[in-house]
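Quick entry, no commentary yet.
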Amino acid sequence: MKFILHACLLVCTTLITSVVAVEHASAQQANSTDTNSYDLSNPDVQMSLAFVHTLLLNTRENHSHRLNGEVGNEYFIRKQDGAEAVFNIRGDVVTDCSNRGTPNKANPAQRPLAHFSLDVWPWMNTGNCNNAATSPQQRVDGYIKDLREALILIGDTGGGFFVPENPNVLEDNFAAYYLFAIQLERSGIDLYTFMRYDFVVEQHREAFLANLRHIFLSEIADPSS
């Protein structure tokens, strides 16, 4: 059952509060194994999950596969099983470490949060190969361009935000939820306001992306932070 965010927005009369408020209310709660901060019955969690899910579902990884000047590359994905391939401007399959397609552990068209957590985030950290064909900054910058286009697409189509079927913010989906929702809120981004108004305004959209870029690079530089 898909939960359409528009319905939630009609009944939500206050700004979204941080989904980590309970987690950090006290040292005792922060050290407990309780997962109320990720309780899917919490409207704030539903709202932030809807944002992350819809953003990643609409993210086409074209720029992520156009690194080192290969700007003519095109990225394709088979929706049935999530298999991907990249073709250069001549129509040849790209096989170099910088931009080649990779096997996906999670289908981006069906499980976009898990795809980010299991496929995209490891790629951002280490790339496709053992040799340093690209830098983390290059990979993050490429993906930020893809996210920019996704936000513009969502605004242009007006489709709203919705949570996935059988959602789970822990386990396979956690890295995506942690980086996009929890860390953004910790950095001062109000996801409710951004979803409701700001993502269609270029100035606010660019500030959001700059903040997310900083989070990505900070986490890569210090994964324990």
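second:
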Amino acid sequence: MNRSPFCFSLKDDSGEFVGALVNLVKVEFFTGAVTDAKTGQTGYPYVVNAAGMIIIHPKKEFINNEDIGKIPEMADIFEAIGSTKKGVATYRFKGVDKIAGFAFAELTDWSLVVTQNEDEFLAASHAIRNAIAIIGGIFLSLTNLPFSDGLGKKAKGLLKKAAPAKKKAQTDPEQMNPLASADELENF
């Protein structure tokens, strides 16, 4: 049976420390509320103490056996928990990229961490991005249809108007160069 100490400082009316209240509490008292929560398919919460020891986790073998401060892949999340007390951080665990939100509970000196595989966490964002790109591409294509049809007609008209000039140029090469001599070309 896992027990964890709770310690509360006792102060008088002036705020002066007068003593401490210490009690050992069964961790199982909290575990059900934490470990029953799920986030998507891969997400789960766990609790670590200030030293980095996992004290509540869905996998019982991790409780009091895994110290996130000593797992090289989890150094980023351990540092974030210790420095910012609440926020979001990315890290790797057993080769899987994860995103975690965490909050420090000052009263207990514990941090609640809710983690999820990065792929699953970002899946909705990626789906939205892809849908916007597809819909944007469709609308861009639809808005360009009237212009492309008009440009095609204009290009055909220009080619028809240029056909006589092209024919004349093929029969009379001097018509291609309006310059009378090489001297004029040099001055150009």
